[in-house]
Amino acid sequence: RSTLFPYTTLFRSSYIGDQSFIGCTSLTQITLPRNLVVIYPAAFRDCPSLNLIRLRSRSGLYVYSDIFDKSTIDKAILMIPAGTSDTFKNSLVWGLFRYRMEDYDL
Predict the structure, then answer these.
(1) Looking at CB atoms within 10 Å, which of 10, 36, 55, 86 has the fewest?
(2) Which residues lie closer than 8 Å to 96 by C-beta, 6 or more apart?
(3) Residue 65 CB coordination number (10 Å)
(4) pLDDT of 77-91, one tens digit each?
(5) pLDDT at 43 over 70
(6) How far apart are CA 17 and CA 39, in angstroms?
(7) Which percentage of the chain shows pLDDT scores above 90?
(8) Which residues on adjacent β-strands are paired with residue 54?
(9) Which long-range contacts (CB under 8 A, 24 or more apart) does 5-9 make?
């Protein structure tokens, strides 16, 4: 799985399956589409290089609590659509990110 490009954009995906990107050591950035509905367990576990997550969804997205490692939550930047900071800061998973930034281009 470490052969993925460093930057990945998911198009037209409504879900990310269980352990989809587990162990992708070369994954540094990912863009999650607006139509994403659910992210299943361990989807981004053991992705030590993941440092930027662009979340295009403006509303509630069902995520399992263990989709990221704690080290990713502590160091990665979560880019969220402008005006959604309150929505995501109270979220079970997204609210744990230390670095959340609003992006007007999302």
Answers:
(1) 86
(2) 73
(3) 9
(4) 999 999 988 888 888
(5) yes
(6) 6
(7) 46
(8) 31, 79
(9) 6/49, 9/33
Length of the chain in terms of residues written: 106
Spatial distance between the Cα atoms of 91 and 6, rounded to a whole number of angstroms: 27
Which amino acid would we find at residue 101? M
pLDDT for residue 1 is more than 50: no
Please tell me the number of Cα atoms within 13 Å of 9 on its side-chain side: 6
- Phi then psi for residue 47, to 5 deg, are -115, 75
**Other beta carbons less than 10 A from residue 92's beta carbon:** 10
Q: Is 13 helix (H, G, I), strand (E, B) or coil?
A: coil
Specify whether the CB–CB gap between 32 and 56 falls below 8 A: yes
Nearest Cα neighbor of 88 from 101, 75, 76 is 101
Hey, what's the torsion of the CAs at 41, 46, 51, 55, to 10 degrees? -10
